[in-house]
Amino acid sequence: MAEFAEHVRLVASRCESFRESKAPEGYPDSLALCIVDSVQSTMVRYPTVENVISNYRAYRRERGGDPNKDSAADLAATFDQLNGHEAWAKRIGNGNRTSTAKGAPLKAYAIENEARAMINVDIITVQDLRTAAKDPDQLARVKQEWLKVPGQGPGVTWHYVQMLAGIPGIKPDRMIMRFVAHALGVPLKTITPSFCVKLLTAVADELDMPATALDHAIWSYQRTR
Fold first, then answer.
1. What is the value of pTM for the model shown?
2. Has the keyword Oxidoreductase been applied to this entry (predicted)?
C-alpha cells in the first residue's frame, strides 16, 4: 500500500502541469463513431483514424443519415449496404489490421463485429452504454462481448470506447504505459494495463481532475515528444 502511494506521488508530480487540461468531447451521441474511432486508433497515427471518421460521416450524409447520432445498428447497416467488411474497408476504412500477427483480420472486420456484439447485448445507443456503466454486472457482460472480437482482447479499445462515449477512464495504450514507466523509472515491460489504469485513476483523483482529461494530457504530451 505504501509503495502504491509513493507511485501515485511520483506520477502526480510529473502530471502537475496537466491539472487544467481538458479532454475532447468525444462522440456523446454516436455509438457508431465511438466504435469506429476506438478500434481504428490502436497502433497507428491518429490522422489515419480521422480520415476513417471523415469517410464514415461523408458516407452516412450522402444517404441522408446523421453520423453524429448513429447507433450500433446504423453502423452495422453500413456493412450490409456495402456487402461486408472488405468493401467497407475500401469505401470507408483502410487496410489497417487488428494486429501485426500474420493473417490478422482488417480493423473493418473488428468494427463490424463490435457493432453486432453491442447489438447482441442490447447496447444500441451511446446512452445505453453510459447506462450500462452504472451497473457493474451489466458492464461486465458488455465487456465480455467486446473482448471476444479479434484484436480487442488486450482491453485498450474497451477502455477507449467508453471514454469516447463520455464515461471517465484511462486508456492504457503503449504511449500512456510508456509515460508511467518513465515516471516511475522502471522498464516498460513491468507496467501492465490494469496497473496503469489503477495508478492513473488514483493520480487523477490526487490532482482533482477527470481521469479522461489526464489520459488525454499524457497522450498529447507523449505524441509531441
1. 0.90
2. yes
